[in-house]
Amino acid sequence: MSEAVDRVTRFSAALVDEASREGTRENRSARQQLEHWARVGRGVSTRSTAARRRVEAALSGSLPIGDLSPEESVVFDSEIDALIEERLVQVDHVETRTAKGFSSVAVDDHGRMVEYRPDGTTVVLSA
What we know:
Elements: H1 13-25, H2 30-46, H3 50-60, H4 70-90, H5 93-99, E1 104-107, E2 113-116, E3 122-124
Antiparallel strand pairs: 1-2, 2-3
Helix pairs in contact: 1-2, 3-4
Organism: Antrihabitans cavernicola
Protein name: ParD-like antitoxin of type II toxin-antitoxin system
């Protein structure tokens, strides 16, 4: 019988905080909550049902979102949320917008709201 070995995995602080809050409500640790979410997500993602195919069709744009059932819409919204969160950590949106000549507002490493301008200047909007 092989023994399960834990592997070090990094998660965003926001996700761990959410898992901690939800885990408290469900009598789970943050780690247990993350594992629970992963198992549920894996189950949903691997299901090859008509409903899953409809969600995938809506995600690809070949089925109007309004044609989804309420349950399918929940899965669709969750898929979109996950895609947005994945892309937010992969792309520097402030840099991208600045290069296109647009200002951006974001929270800096000190928790302040800062406007980043195309000319390279910044303005702290809140302290």
